[in-house]
Design goal:
Elements lengths: L6 H11 L5 H11 L5 H7 L3 H4 L10 E6 H8 L3 H12 L6 E14 L5 H10 L1 H9 L10 E5 H8 L3 H9 L1 H7 L6 E13 L5 H36 L10 H20 L18 H17 L7 H9 L8 H4 L14 H15 L1
Antiparallel strand pairs: 1-4, 2-3, 2-4
Helix pairs in contact: 1-12, 2-12, 7-8, 9-10, 14-17, 15-17
Length: about 350
């Protein structure tokens, strides 16, 4: 903190709002993670099982799923680590609807030399996952290039195997083909993806509770980070000298150093969940006399980029000078008419106004 008036807070606050998430992003994440399955439909077709399972019990036992990271980053307009944080927060839900695993390469690509269907079927005899895949697709069409591609995580879920076992079994195909004296078969795993186990039969109430839980966690974390930032500013401000000319006495410097050391120890030893001492400062929001002027700036921005489909959060980020995967700083930062133009304004209030203007614009 170099400025006693708090100008640094505006810059440091940008790093907190960089991870902000809006309603639409949370809703999209919930829908993708808890995509509907066919467990209930399949169970209804088996009449004898309906007598064995209690009426109110959950039929779905969870499915291993994967979502390509790059695709999800573009869809949510969030960085990879931001999405992973949201998934970790969702995993903390008391109902345990989600179990998160380390990222994996979810898709498998198998190349058979000479587009040989015979080699494919011989490999399927030695590899149960490949045999299961061909059983679901009896034609076994390799295509012109002798290439077979599929989602290995979805395959493992269909088989009821762990993904690790499926990957190991598929990975042994090249070695076994060489051992049998056949032409070399190439197996490659690609497309890095988020990997998790989630239920697919959540009703609307359970989906809403998941959304409310995740949204409350996001808002709580953001407020906590803003409080900590304010506390750091007040801490350093309390031990700062008003001026370095003339140079303070050595004794005064030692006293300030000791005081700062005690404050820092207290800061790191303090329970982060406690917020009684750090009461959140009321957000000033946007002054009513400036609201129309700000709305005009937002409309001007939307007019300048009519081909883009902005969200309120994306517009607020650009006005605060925050880049994102879909709207990177190297492109939108060139337009100084809007980049960092409204940095002093409160982020969520600006995002709310931008959302209203976008709806009116459409």
């Amino acid at each position: 903190f170099f400025f006693p008036q708090g100008q640094d807070l505006l810059e440091l606050r940008r790093h907190i709002h960089e991870n902000s998430v809006d309603f639409l992003a949370v809703k999209t994440l919930i829908q993708r993670v808890f995509a509907p399955c066919k467990c209930l439909e399949n169970h209804g077709k088996i009449q004898e099982n309906s007598k064995e399972i209690p009426k109110n019990s959950r039929i779905c036992r969870g499915h291993e799923r994967s979502i390509p990271i790059q695709e999800f980053v573009e869809s949510l307009d969030l960085r990879e680590e931001g999405i992973e944080t949201l998934l970790c927060l969702l995993e903390l839900q008391p109902q345990k609807f989600l179990e998160l695993f380390p990222p994996v390469h979810s898709r498998c690509r198998i190349r058979f030399p000479g587009n040989s269907t015979e080699s494919l079927r011989e490999a399927a005899l030695r590899c149960p996952p490949l045999g299961f895949l061909l059983a679901r697709n009896p034609s076994g069409n390799l295509g012109i290039s002798g290439l077979l591609e599929f989602n290995a995580v979805a395959l493992s879920d269909s088989m009821g195997w762990e993904f690790r076992r499926v990957r190991e079994s598929l990975g042994r195909i090249p070695w076994e083909s060489r051992k049998a004296g056949k032409s070399r078969i190439q197996v490659e795993f690609w497309e890095l993806s988020f990997h998790f186990r989630a239920y697919g039969d959540l009703d609307s109430q359970e989906l809403d509770s998941s959304w409310e839980f995740l949204n409350s966690q996001i808002i709580s974390r953001e407020k906590s980070e803003l409080r900590r930032l304010q506390r750091c500013f007040r801490t350093f401000q309390s031990v700062a000298f008003p001026s370095f000319i003339p140079e303070p006495l050595e004794q005064e410097q030692l006293e300030k150093n000791s005081q700062l050391r005690e404050l820092l120890q207290e800061y790191f030893q303090r329970d982060p969940t406690e917020s009684k001492e750090d009461e959140e400062e009321k957000s000033p929001g946007i002054p009513p006399d400036q609201e129309e002027e700000i709305r005009a700036e937002i409309r001007k921005f939307l007019t300048a980029y009519p081909e883009e489909e902005f969200s309120g959060r994306a517009v607020a980020r650009i006005f605060h000078g925050i880049g994102s995967p879909r709207y990177p700083a190297r492109i939108f930062g060139r337009d100084r008419r809007f980049w960092r133009r409204l940095l002093p304004l409160e982020f969520r209030s600006l995002s709310r106004l931008a959302s209203q203007e976008i709806l009116a614009w459409r």
